Sequence to fold (180 residues):
Amino acid sequence: MHAYDDPAWRSLPVRPAALRWLLLLPMTLVFLPLWWVLWLFLAICFSCAATVAELIVYMVPRAENGAVRVLDATLGRVPFVPLWCVTPVALVREGDTAYYRVRVERRIEKQTRRVETSQYRREYHRDLELGAHYFRGAGAGYVLRVASERGWNLHPVLRSHPRRRLRLRHNGRPRPDARD
Fold:
């Protein structure tokens, strides 16, 4: 499948303390609220554009797929939590592999339970996207290893990048060892 020994799939290197405390934290405190305001503004603008697109879709039925793809391609490319953002917890836990491993395991287990207990096996439950800030200390290879044990694989359509973001998809079948 993937070479877990490849450096791209290992945990990200620990950032120097000076970089974390003197550059990333002030940048996060100052620019993150501005980033969220911009993101919210874009979301509102695209929602307004979606209503106009909805009117066009009523007149031209084939335009629906294109309108949905345009909205996904634009707003989906702007992350809510950018890569340069560093939270206070991430500052304190930098380099703590055990913390990140537990964090990844909890998130995957929670999403797996959600998929397996979903009454109608909804499609949106089957997708899981993890940003690098979520698995930074554990590595993308570890995430993929833990996720594959629970029925998750890399998304067949959406691309993943082990240094930035992993997009996973569940096969939709309950695990044989899952207890009801």
In short: The longest strand covers residues 165-170.
